[in-house]
């Protein structure tokens, strides 16, 4: 799936999507960061089967509001 970019609260974000057997993984990287937040979207309720990309984008944009504003740590 093609990457997606969006702006929220003055910060630009780039999202890269990865398909897994269990669902989708989104790598959300704020502009200027080398690290990305990783958010999983399991198969099931919440996806519009006619617009999976749109569902994932909406989920990522909603998730950003809950992400920490500092750089994520490496584990």
UniProtKB/TrEMBL annotation:
Top-level taxon: Bacteria
Protein name (Swiss-Prot/TrEMBL): HicB family protein
């Amino acid at each position: 799936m093609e990457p997606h970019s969006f702006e929220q609260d003055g910060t630009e974000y780039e999202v890269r999507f990865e398909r897994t057997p269990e669902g989708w993984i989104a790598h959300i990287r704020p502009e200027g960061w080398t690290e990305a937040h990783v958010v999983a979207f399991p198969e099931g309720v919440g996806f519009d089967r006619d617009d999976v990309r749109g569902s994932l984008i909406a989920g990522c944009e909603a998730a950003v509001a809950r992400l920490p504003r500092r750089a994520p740590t490496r584990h």
